[in-house]
Amino acid sequence: MSIAITDPIDRIVAGNAIYARQTSETDPNAFAELERGQSPEILWIGCADSRVPETTVCNCAPGELFVHRNIANTVHGNDISAASVVEYAVAHLKVRKIVVCGHTRCGGANAALTDLDLGTTLNTWLHPVRELRRKHRAELERLPNDDARAVRVAELNVHQSIDVLKQHPAVMKAVSEHSLSLHGMIYDIGAGKLWLLKESRGKKDYGLWTPK
Fold first, then answer.
1. pTM of the predicted model, to two decimals?
2. 103 annotated among ligand-binding-site residues
3. I need a surface site. Which of 112, 139, 140, 197 has the fewest CB within 10 A?
4. Pairing state of beta strands 65-70 and 193-200?
């Protein structure tokens, strides 16, 4: 009879033991290969939301994605944490693609719909997203409800983050010299699906998905 594990730390340690055993049984060389180094082709910039684990939703294995996550997958021009991840991924790992992925039911995007006080740090962090809401107020007010508005803010935020990334010196150089490309996505939590956001003739075209 198995004993239920209730402590969250015990849960992840036990889970790791299962992962290590099953991985070794499936591929005895898996960890030796990972130990030799990494050569991911994609830098994934996503939200810290626990429901959007990138390797799981993309069905990827360890070593396939280089990852940076934060609240609302927001890239700030003065964020040295994100900038250092980008520089390492682009200049040293030579990734071929950068993906910025937002998602539905995003707490950060939803919080950006108002100016409620979330505390000094979160207020500062979400300020650029709230500015997007103000800038696109007329468009957002035409949408049927806050769920739809939050998704639209998430989409706009993805594009804004990509615009910031395009100004990063390492990205500019890699786009010119190595054909690095940048891509925006939205993950639909309710459907478990990724939606690629496209640009049309230089304009933002996010009409690929309509919230229910």
1. 0.91
2. yes
3. 139
4. unpaired
